[in-house]
Design goal:
The protein is α/β, with parallel strands linked by helices. 38% of the residues lie in helices and 22% in strands. It has 15 helices and 14 strands. Strand 2 and strand 3 form a beta hairpin. The longest helix is centred in the last third of the chain and has 24 residues, at 295-318. The chain is globular, with a radius of gyration of 21 Å.
Length: 399
């Protein structure tokens, strides 16, 4: 019987999971999510990827991640006895700090390092750690932690250091870490495969555009710069996150509006970005409203694209113009024809030119969409962070 690896992504009030077999294709067998953990009206959506059979459980009380994982375990057991085949669990962990720069077998020291990184990711790491502990109790097999930040551990000091007093870096670890690492790793491998070249010989600019959005500059298969910082707040405009703002905004909001640091953090993380500009956070809704004539929605789109193009210019300079491909991925990057078109508009002089017919194709596979005379290829590459976690789990265990 084929053995499999379970991937867990524990959020503050959710638990996403996916099950992959261990053959060469690492095919997804099933996936699902527990939502509303800690509330009396939790939901579980469970989908068998092979036969499309869906299960939805509503109105259940899932007070913590341990109970949530027990519910998942029951579903796995019922669904063709999938639970009996699991030989490893891969965990998504947001922040590894400077101590954890590659996927690692979960040990007491690894859990301690994840806990020490909590001040750098207070919304994510505690939930990630709770998911690990719950899985250790329930599933007696090796557990592997895969870190969002590890992909960016190749950043040079001049790219990751802030111009703050050096003591703050030494004492608190304040530096740029970057996120979406599992997505970047997957997309890098897929892009190299599409171009039929070794990733170590390629330079990419990758745009991970979703509710959370970031970009990365890749030189010879290694990340040399990225837009997110010590937290996922820095960089591009996102669904509800502001991205780059003048730090002086903090003092103004505190003195003029009387906001606490917690309230300012909430404003920048939960009430800004597209949502703060126009009242909607789904780019499909924002684009449709802009097209229908809403000025505030059009402004939100323009600001979103402007920030991407600003970093695109910087990364073209960082890579000295030697770019093999500009890559779009994640929800907006993969599906928004107009956003891709706006990002690439008027960049012929920089070697980037779209074939609008290819850009408009309704396709789900990885593909090239540049024009015949474009010096730089333009790729659309669907991401799969759960699959990447499964693959890295196997690499750690050498299965």
């Amino acid at each position: 019987m084929t053995k499999s690896v379970l991937v867990l992504n524990s959020g503050s009030s959710s638990l996403k999971y996916a099950l992959y077999n261990l053959d060469k294709s690492a095919k997804c067998l099933l996936r699902g999510v527990v939502e509303g953990i800690g509330t009396p009206k939790s939901l579980i959506f469970h989908k068998n990827a092979q036969d499309g059979c869906n299960v939805k459980l509503e109105g259940i009380n899932v007070s913590n991640h341990r109970i949530g994982l027990n519910k998942v375990w029951e579903l796995l057991h019922v669904d063709r006895g999938s639970s009996s085949n699991i030989c490893a669990v891969g965990h998504r962990v947001a922040h590894g700090g400077e101590a954890l720069t590659k996927p690692a077998l979960v040990t007491d020291s690894v859990k301690k390092a994840i806990e020490e990184a909590v001040p750098l990711a207070p919304l994510h790491n505690p939930a990630n750690l709770e998911g690990i502990k719950a899985a250790e109790e329930l599933i007696k097999c090796p557990q592997v932690a895969v870190f969002d930040t590890s992909f960016h551990s190749t950043l040079p000091p001049y790219a990751y250091m802030y111009a703050l007093p050096l003591t703050l870096y030494k004492e608190l670890g304040l530096r740029r870490y970057g996120f979406h690492g599992t997505s970047y790793q997957f997309v890098l491998d897929e892009s190299a495969s599409l171009l039929r070249k070794s990733k170590d010989s390629l330079n990419f600019i990758i745009c991970h555009l979703g509710a959370g959005a970031s970009m990365a500059a890749i030189r010879e298969g290694k990340c040399i710069d990225t837009t997110m910082g010590v937290t996922p707040l820095e960089g591009l405009v996102m669904a509800t996150r502001s991205g780059d703002v003048d730090p002086g905004v903090f003092q103004i909001l505190a003195s003029e509006k009387g906001l606490s640091t917690q309230e300012i953090s909430r404003l920048l993380n939960k009430e800004s970005g597209l949502y703060g500009l126009c009242g909607d956070k789904d780019m499909r809704v924002v684009w449709d409203a802009a097209k229908a004539g809403s000025e505030k929605h059009k402004l939100a789109v323009d600001i979103f694209v402007h920030r991407i193009r600003k970093y695109l210019g910087a990364y073209l300079v960082h890579l000295k113009g030697k770019v093999d491909a500009l890559v779009f991925t994640a929800g907006i990057g993969e599906n928004s024809v107009p956003i891709r078109s706006m990002v690439c508009q008027g960049l012929d002089a920089f070697g980037i030119s779209l074939d609008e017919k290819k850009n408009n194709q309704d396709a789900k596979e990885k593909r090239e969409i540049q024009s015949a005379d474009s010096k730089i290829k333009v790729l659309v590459v669907p991401t799969d962070e759960e699959l990447c976690i499964a693959q890295q789990t196997l690499q750690v265990l050498r299965i």
